[in-house]
Design goal:
Number of strands: 14
Number of helices: 10
Oligomer: single chain
CATH class of the largest domain: Alpha Beta
Radius of gyration: 20 Å
Strand content: 15-25%
CATH superfamily of the largest domain: Dihydrodipicolinate Reductase, domain 2
Order of helices and strands: EHEEEHEHEEHEHEHHEEHEHEEH
CATH architecture of the largest domain: 2-Layer Sandwich
Largest sheet: 6 strands, parallel
Mean pLDDT: 97
Low-confidence stretches: none
Helix content: 25-40%
């Protein structure tokens, strides 16, 4: 099977290549695709060298699958061209997520919505992915009314430029700035641009995407997203109000049994999810489970996941794995 990685030289594209190799996805040939300035560069997959090709050459190579991680404008222009050539596209940008004609998929939650007619499939926002993986099994049991989420997001979510800014600041080096402000020893309560309602685009992504993925427009979500100087993954403080009451012991049992979740909830031994432990892992780590004592049927939880893996590359590869299992590839 030929697989094209569009944006192969970027932070997420590189991670996609790594995850495809680690999960032993049945690739016969990798077609690395990037912008004109990267054409001709070499990338390695399973110890074999491949030359980066242009967007059109990626289509001409006739892959069965193209995984895009090259930004929204590139996806809007090129994903339809790949799809028209009979190539299945899994897109990691925000371009197609809220398009009513496109599926927005987290395999543990809603892979069943995929059909043979789907040629452009949207990979959700990283912070949304980890949250819905943890929420879905609880929603099935208790029915979620409202979610209040605050995120603590890794600089890797912005890309290499942000990682370089953080390391430059730590090393006392002047360099290009990914953010308006210093990020080291700081927390920036703005991810993406502000919208007319006072929320950022990232915050509204979490609101809208959660309802679409979980297939329930009645779930109320409000979000505050914050960039912090860490590298291992995104963390989220989540307050969930349910229609029905719960027992904490049962919540733990549900989460332990749910696919993709690793429960780390032992406060007596100071065991709880942290980005440094989630780094380079595919799971969604959940802990700090406790009742909200200010109102009924409400749970507090802490969710951590590697945003470059489950929040991007791994989720895309899992979609591809599901499509392969269902005979869609």
């Amino acid at each position: 099977m030929k697989v094209a990685i569009v944006g192969a030289t970027g932070l997420v594209g590189s991670k996609m290549l790594q995850v495809l190799e680690e999960r032993n996805f049945p690739v016969t040939e990798i077609i690395p695709v990037a912008s004109e300035r990267s054409v001709g560069k070499e990338i390695f997959f399973k110890a074999k060298s491949y030359k980066v090709v242009s967007m059109q050459d990626g289509i001409n190579a006739k892959p069965a699958l193209a995984i895009f991680s090259a930004g929204g404008s590139t996806s809007l222009e090129w994903a339809p061209k790949y799809a028209e050539a009979g190539i299945r596209v899994i897109d990691n940008s925000s371009a197609w997520r809220m398009d009513a004609t496109k599926k927005l998929v987290v395999p543990e939650v809603n892979a069943h919505v995929l059909t043979a007619d789907d040629y452009i499939i949207a990979n959700p926002n990283c912070s949304t992915i980890q949250m819905v993986v943890a929420l879905q099994p609880l929603h099935k049991k208790y029915s979620i009314k409202r979610v209040v989420v605050s995120t603590y997001q890794s600089v890797t979510g912005t890309g290499k430029k942000a990682v370089d800014q953080l390391m430059n600041e730590r090393n006392g080096v002047d360099g290009e700035m990914a953010y308006k402000y210093k990020i080291d020893l700081n927390a920036i309560p703005q991810i993406d641009v502000f919208l007319p309602n006072g929320y950022t685009k990232e915050e509204m992504k979490m609101v809208l995407e959660t309802c679409k993925i979980m297939g329930d427009d009645q779930i109320k979500v409000t979000a505050t997203t914050v960039r912090i100087p860490v590298m291992g993954g995104h963390s989220e403080s989540v307050n969930v109000e349910f229609e029905n009451d719960f027992e904490l012991s049962e919540v733990r049992d549900i989460l332990v049994a749910a696919p993709g979740i690793i429960l780390e909830d032992d406060i007596n031994n100071a065991i709880y999810p942290m980005p440094m432990n989630a780094h380079e892992k595919d799971g969604v780590f959940v802990g700090r489970l406790r009742r909200d004592e200010t109102q009924p049927n409400t749970l507090n939880m802490w969710i951590v996941s590697d945003n470059l893996r489950k929040g991007a590359a791994t989720n895309a590869v899992q979609i591809a794995e599901y499509m392969l299992e269902q005979g869609l590839l």
